[in-house]
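$ run holo --ligand "MD3" --emit tokens
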Amino acid sequence: MAEQAFLLKGFLQGNDAALITALKDITTQSVFRHMITPGGYEMSVAMTNCGARGWVTDRRGYRYDALDPLSNASWPAMPALFKQLAEAAARQTGFPHFTPDACLINRYAPGAKLSLHQDRDEQDFSQPIVSFSLGLPATFDFGGLDRKSPVTPWLLEHGDVVVWGGESRLFYHGIRPLKKGSHSLPGNCRINLPFRRAY
Ligand code: MD3
Ligand code: FE
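-- output --
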């Protein structure tokens, strides 16, 4: 996709049902919620987390927290299968030392979108981000280091994995409003799991 950004088409095939089963368990403990941006807007994407750290946003800002603010308990553990697949994808694309401590879980219903942004709440930008896509397809806009850089659209489909390392780690990106469709596995939505090293 760019220097050190790799799209692994269908990488999750064969593990998709097990991933979704594990997600059901996680999301009964830490439920999906629409978080509030520091500017006071409710996000259209519903989110939760698993792993030692979870990404949260509220009026106070964006950060990683060890506790789910809804339950004041730790986020559910990251399932071994999630970690194994994320590390395997990183290894295959040249990041043998990647060990994620955070897995955000994004759920897009039809119409949900994620505006153009950078991921910069992590400590070490030399660590890549690995992201899994499940369910309905989405159009992903991939820009550059500048907010005004031109974007290239990519289709992300059920079973795809993307690894973002090197310079692409800080590229602007976003998801266009999800189109309606039907998908049996997670239901009629899209699930995205970005794995990160927060600390
Ligand atoms: C591209 N999620 O959670 S894939 C996010 O599909 C996020 O839900 C999108 O952007 C989604 O922050 C896009 C994840 C992703 C993560 C980091 C990136 C894409 C990236 C860093 C640089 C470029
Ligand atoms: Fe992002």
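-- notes --
The chain has a mean pLDDT of 97.
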